[in-house]
Design a protein that fits this description.
Number of strands: 10
Distance between the termini: 47 Å
CATH class of the largest domain: Alpha Beta
Helix content: 40-55%
Strand order of the largest sheet: 6-5-4-7-8-10-9
Number of helices: 14
Largest sheet: 7 strands, mixed
Bound molecules: S-adenosylmethionine
CATH superfamily of the largest domain: Vaccinia Virus protein VP39
């Protein structure tokens, strides 16, 4: 939608209301209480410790948006919605809901972030244990399908040791090692994040095959996670930092890559010639959420890879809808 006039503009201005509806329903555990059961507004209000008036209005709005079904004065959740939003569902995305809600607080400061050219509440994932855990959980909820797609696309049958750089929940290590039982991996990340990484490594029974290595990729002058790596994956890390820091980080990483090894960069690449609303919004999210992060083009990241002494640098298309993969080799 470009020039939709006042009705279209009004719709955009009010779009936050549907987000807030979902955030409140998740906070009040509405979809958990409604999973496989139907209840009156009064019953749900009791379970959620809420007013009956407020709960009825919330449920009627959820019904209007199609997320809840109302029948004979009782409300029920659609199974596909409960699968995603009920706390006891193994596939729930509630960490992602919490992370996006946290993002709303950051976006509320957008104008000030534009004035100053950087985020205001940044870096919390390195020191706020609760937010970090939720952030890493969200990365897994959002990323495991992408990790599985990467494991399916690349042929790692001749590779032995993966370095999962800024690997967070280890989703990519887990997906790749599940497909290639002979491989081992190291997840290199900040110490606080690694506490969460180890939970995911244990959840997927990968303790014997996936190690963790504490590192600050940007502050550490050199890395001590050893050598022997014939694959490195830098997934969704570069957008969190500025260009100089990224170039230096890739230079340090390349020193630990074996000759003949490959480096895969998985990123939200941006192509200014082909504007994408999703990518433009993600880039803005990096403005509010980080000090210097943004989205980069293939050309920018290719320059850093070349400066690190890597060659055969090329994008890989077709795995994801948007530009997301750049690969390089160490001669
Ligand atoms: C957006 S998450 C990506 C996680 C995972 N690679 C993925 O693609 O889902 C970014 C990761 O980079 C890590 N990270 C951020 N700054 C870092 C730093 N200075 N040193 C090491 N890791 C860092 C975070 O802890 C987090 O795990």
């Amino acid at each position: 939608m470009t020039a939709a006039g006042w009705p279209g503009l009004l719709g955009r201005l009010r779009a936050y209301q549907e987000s807030e509806l979902l955030f409140a329903a998740a906070e009040l555990d509405v979809f958990t209480h409604l999973a496989g059961e139907s209840h009156t507004a009064g019953e749900l209000a009791g379970m959620a410790g809420a007013s009956e008036r407020g709960m009825r209005m919330l449920l009627d709005a959820l019904t209007a948006t199609g997320l809840v079904i109302k029948q004979d004065g009782c409300y029920a959740s659609r199974p596909e919605v409960s699968a995603l939003l009920a706390a006891h569902s193994p596939e729930n995305k509630l960490n992602a809901v919490r992370l996006i809600r946290h993002g709303c607080d950051q976006w509320r400061e957008l104008a000030q972030c534009v004035r100053q050219g950087s985020g205001i509440k940044t870096g919390w994932f390195a020191h706020d244990a609760e937010l970090n855990r939720s952030f890493i959980g969200a990365m897994h909820e959002i990323g495991f399908a992408n990790a599985t797609a990467i494991a399916a696309h690349f042929d790692f049958s001749s590779r032995q040791l993966l370095l999962d750089v800024g690997g967070g929940p280890a989703s990519y290590s887990i997906a790749i090692l599940r497909k290639y039982p002979h491989m081992r991996a190291t997840v290199a990340d900040l110490p606080l994040t690694l506490e969460a990484s180890r939970e995911y490594i244990a959840r997927y029974d990968m303790q014997g095959r996936v190690n963790t290595a504490p590192v600050d990729l940007y502050a550490d002058a050199a890395f001590d996670f050893g050598s022997g790596y014939d694959v490195m994956l830098v997934s969704n890390v570069l957008h969190m930092a500025g260009p100089e820091d990224n170039e230096a980080m890739i230079g340090k990483l390349a020193k630990h890559l074996d000759a003949g090894g490959m480096m895969i960069v998985h990123e939200s690449f941006i192509d200014h010639a082909v504007p994408s609303v999703e990518r433009a919004m993600f880039a803005l999210h990096m403005l509010v959420a980080t000090d210097e992060g943004r989205c980069y083009s293939y050309a920018e990241v290719s320059e850093w890879l070349a400066a690190a002494g890597l060659d055969d640098i090329h994008p890989v298309e077709g795995v994801f809808e948007q530009p997301s993969l750049l690969v390089a080799s160490k001669p």
